[in-house]
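User: Please predict the structure of the protein below. I'd like the answer in structure-token form so I can feed it into my own downstream comparison script.

Assistant: Understood. Taking the following sequence of 506 residues as input:
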Amino acid sequence: MTFDYKNIFAGASVAALLGLATLGTTSCSKDFIDLNDPTRLPTTEGYTDSLSILNGVTAAYSSLQDLYGKSSSNNRGIFVFGEIPSDNSFTVVSGERLNEFNDFTVVSDNPRIQSQWLMTYRTIARCNIVLGRAAAVKLTDATRNRYYAEVRFIRALAYFNAVRIWGDVPLVTREIESIPEAYEFGRTPAAQVYALIEQDLAFAETNLPATQTGVNLGRATKGAAQGLLGKVLLTQRKYTDAAAKLKQVIDANNYSLQPTYANIFATNNEMNSEILFAVRYTKGALNLGSAFTTWFMPAYTTAQTTALIGASFTGQQFNTVDTDLVNAFTASGTTDVRAATSYTLPINPSSTTTYYTKKYIDTPTSSTDAENDWIVLRYADVLLMYAEAVNEATGPNAQALDAVNRVIRRSRNLPVATPNATVDLPAGTGAQTLRDRIELERRLELSFEGHRWFDLVRTGRAIPVMNAFFTRTGASTRINQDDLLFPIPLQEIQTNPILNQNPGYN
């Protein structure tokens, strides 16, 4: 039997919590197999063997495409929250209401808020289905634990994004089987959400393989779980624990900085030595491509876009480079090779001053069908987080300085493991100097990868940095504590009366 969910449920949010939304699957090798009828109601009978459980795990991975940005799901992804509110980026268009994130005028009926919430809980629901049903399926303990570890990693990632976006959120850890059950979940204190995230990642770390190869390339690994757990601990300011966990990633020697910065983002070099985890997309394969190339590109002429990407699709200007970031790169010096990859100069400065990030350049087969993966966590991020955790826990030491210096050396096209007195931070660097340099290096190294706003909030720097930015650019906007979280979607509050709104929002 098939169902039309739009006619059955009053709101898609209930379907997301129930886990009844589309269960289409894609393998992490970027091959597509249509393993599930997306209109069929999942039933216990559908999870009776190891293949069906594997399909459920793969469906959880598939949902990450919707969570991190996909045109067909009407969700724009994490850059809306991690970049546009920051001093790195602005959006030109207003029809998508992304402009509300620029100037901190977001209201609770914003469709970008709603779609991110829906995709978050769809992802979580798919994970909970596997966790609830795999116990009854005949599997070896090792196989069952590996499947559990993969979906617990995915669930942790979804909740980590959610708690950073909204703070207290509903904590759903089991499959919801009826509509009344969906209304039982109010907001859980963020501390409890973080506790679950830590538990999920600790389990994943223990039960995931060190590497994934072949058709499994792109699935979660032990290092990905350790790196994400390190970031989760750092976000909670558990500095000693964060430093220890991130050091495990470094000491394992499973990852390394790419010698050339631009190669990190090349579509013919995906899942390279620097990538701990990425959400994978592939063009030309039944709606599995990414839209970041054209979403981020300015609305240049046909000739200009053809020169940039080899195709004439019009850019949508969702996530463009602010001149303040350009100025930061300029101040970093002409030897900083990251600038050439991070943004491109306007093609015709007399007609537009809109800069465009080059990290997501590809030749799409259609305006929303490009090859670019979304990198969630990479080794340079780990090195800088490790240095931050050490600095905040004990003050600078040689290992923390070396971690930052490796990133700095790569930014100058220098051998990363070879000390260089010209560019290295010296041994006597103080805690505040190192703190400031890490903030700058993270901005320049990780721009347009979804980190800047969350970095500023984590370090307590969002209000002073952004208000100084607004002053510098002549904007009248000023932010306060209420702006550090985004509103709970209006539809969710109207649907579920036990949900309450964040301060500062209606």
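That's the full token string. The two ends are 41 Å apart (CA to CA).
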